[in-house]
Amino acid sequence: MKVILVPPVHFDVKESYNTRMRPDHPCGKPDKKRTFLQWARMASTAIHDLGITAHFIEPVEDLYDMTFACDPGFWVDDLFIPANFWASPRKPEVEHFVKWFRDREYMVKHLSPLAFFEGGDCVFVKNKIIIGYGENRTNLQGVEEVASIFKKSRVEKVVPIRRVTEEFYHLNSVLTYYPSADLIMYYPKAFEDSAGEQLAFNFPGTRIVPLSEATLFRKHPDFDGEYLYSYALNAVERNGKVLQPYCHEIQEKILRDHGLEVIVPEDGSSEFERSGGSYRCLMMIHNVTQ
């Protein structure tokens, strides 16, 4: 597995365009030293424990969220689809990713201006792509245009799932696929009621496991005990090892029962959670069709 990482040299919370970004809140601003240490532990674990190959894009001053490398587009085989960001402060990030791919002679296909699309809304599952969509971030037009791009490719199908709450604004924050176990875990309250049925229909043979609020929320010690989502489904799995920032005993047992080992690095991802993201958000994964 190959990924792109962007060191969090300029990372900060300056504005608010999701419910976790609270720059004026007592717990809203990341500590810069702790931020880099958390990112370094994540990158080290991904490279040395999961066996991931990392490429790096140089961070750009004033692009505070650029370290969330997953979002500026979607990478499948020799194709890169740049994001059409809903939140305007992130739009300038895209050109730096486009340049990286063009410099390496990848095919780049842009969407039309009103087709909003973000890489964080995509999860690749066995030659199919689940895309979360809603009122903000990726919209239905974005889903349709991405599906059209893949019509004559090795991607078998694009599966749209509607998100219904602004709190969980990216699909990969609340849905993870674990390829070594052919397992999908997700948080049902983030989606329309039919999401579980849609997943079961489109992925026969894959075990679909919903997780409860009690399993995924906690009184967060880095937010003065505030009851918050834990980002336990913003995870990455490879070679039977799962990298995630927090793991409740119920989720850990399910993963163990599927032959997976959970790795929670020291100190977690609290500083990135202040901006609404965690480990999966920090990686743009190269998805490869089989």
Summarize the structure in short.
The protein is an alpha/beta fold and 290 residues long.
What spatial form do the alpha-carbon principal axes imply?
A: globular
Report the β-strand fraction as a percent range: 15-25%
Count of individual helical segments: 8
Sheet with most strands: 6 strands, mixed
Overall mean pLDDT score?
97
Helix content: 10-25%
Please give the CATH architecture: 5-stranded Propeller
Element-by-element helix/strand order: EHEEEHEEEHEHEEHEHEEEEHEHE
CATH-derived topology: L-arginine/glycine Amidinotransferase, Chain A
CATH level 1 name? Alpha Beta
Note the gap between the termini: 13 Å
Domain count: the total is 1
| CATH H-tier superfamily | L-arginine/glycine Amidinotransferase, Chain A
- DSSP, total strands: 17
Poorly predicted ranges: none
How many whole angstroms does the radius of gyration measure? 17 Å
Helix/strand/pairing category: alpha/beta
Strand order of the largest sheet: 2-1-17-3-4-5
Oligomer: single chain
